[in-house]
Structure formats: C-alpha cells, structure tokens
Amino acid sequence: MENFELFIALLVLIIAGVLLLKKMAGCLMRTVITIILLAIFIGAAIILRLF
After folding, report:
1. Which of 13, 14, 21, 45 could hold 50 in an S-S bridge, CB 3.0 to 4.6 Å?
2. Secondary structure of residue 9 in the 3-state scheme
C-alpha cells in the first residue's frame, strides 16, 4: 500500500510540473524539463517495480 501512495504522490507532482510547464515560455526549456520529468517518473517506476 505504501508503494501505491508513493506512486500517487509522484503522479501529483508530475501533473503539477506539467501545469507549471504550460505557464513557462520557451520551447527548449519545455523540452528539457519534460525530459527531466519523464526520467524521474521512469526511475521512480523502476524503483517501485511498477513496470
């Protein structure tokens, strides 16, 4: 159950990051931040063994 709670918290953080991206300007900055968010999500998913 703890893993599920961590996954939900991570998902909320990613959604918040995406909403912040919409308010930022600059295509390059958006790309870099999106790649970082995806790397964090995939890393957390591997650690939590979701895949």
Report:
1. 45
2. helix
